[in-house]
Amino acid sequence: MFNNLIESSSHAREYKRRGSFLLFTTGVYAVLLLLAGVASIYAYDAHLEEQSLEVVTLLPPQEIVPEQSQPAVRERATPQNSRDTPGVTERATAMLSVNHPESVPNVISTAPNTNKPLPENGLYRITGRDRDAGPISGPPSPIGGSRQVATPAQLVNIEQPPPVPDPPKPPKVISKGPITGQAIFLPKPAYPPMAKQIHLQGQVNVQVLVDEQGRVVSAKVVSGHPLFLAEAQRAALQARFSPTKLGDQPVKVSGIITYNFVLGN
To answer: Is 237 helix (H, G, I), strand (E, B) or coil?
Structure first.
């Protein structure tokens, strides 16, 4: 009987020892899991500075206008040994005047050209010499008994095209830097529960764009812990400012709102 009592007492001590070991092991694993969660929160990086707001605009293809062909040079082939014809201009070379910028010369030289250009109107021929048309005389032509009269050159004034209107100017935006103290209504952001559990504190800077009526139309966190990002942006979008004017014209304002997340406030 006494042997049984001694053996029962030893089993109770063994169970107590095993229960203490199991409780200690469970506590160690719980502490390790908590430390791993806190370390993952601090190691998280939202990469806010890598976000890009670049806007890509696709332009329609431009139509390519073919080059205009050079006008054909008017020329009448006549024998070189023919006598002078009244009313017909003679030129040494077929050279257009400066009124035809669309025709590009084949040879470019720095020496002055002594030849005369072709007339704008009237008859002419290439004979190797420069001679202007003289007065028309002699017997009448067999057709209708009238004489051929050379038409004098005329200057045509080309009207200048109307100027291209200026494109509409985009609305002006004024950058003021920190504008926290200029807000007429600045709600306080809620403290994230996860940040409270790990006793996290810090400062968050939010860049906002205020329209002409003083309302915040966009908000973006530029610095601060990721746990405070959502609440800081939500509070910044609810802020209100007085309208800003440049002269008599209302303008948009870009600035920074700073929030301090401190436990106990």
So the answer is: helix
CB 261, CB 202: distance < 8 Å: yes
Tell me the whole-structure pTM to 2 decimals. Answer: 0.37
Angle CA 172–176–182, to nearest 5: 115
SS3 content of the chain, % helix, strand, coil (to 5): 25, 20, 55
Q: How does pLDDT run along the chain (265 residues), one tens digit per residue?
A: 445 544 555 677 888 888 888 888 998 999 999 998 888 887 765 555 555 566 666 677 666 655 555 444 444 444 444 456 666 788 777 777 777 777 767 777 677 777 778 777 767 778 878 777 766 555 544 444 445 555 666 666 667 777 888 776 656 788 888 998 888 999 999 999 998 899 999 999 999 999 989 999 999 999 999 999 999 999 999 999 998 888 888 889 999 999 999 987 5
Q: What superfamily would CATH give domain 171-261?
A: TonB (3.30.2420.10)
In whole angstroms, what is the distance from residue 38 CA to residue 30 CA? Answer: 13
Domain boundaries, the chain: 1-44, 75-98+114-136, 171-261
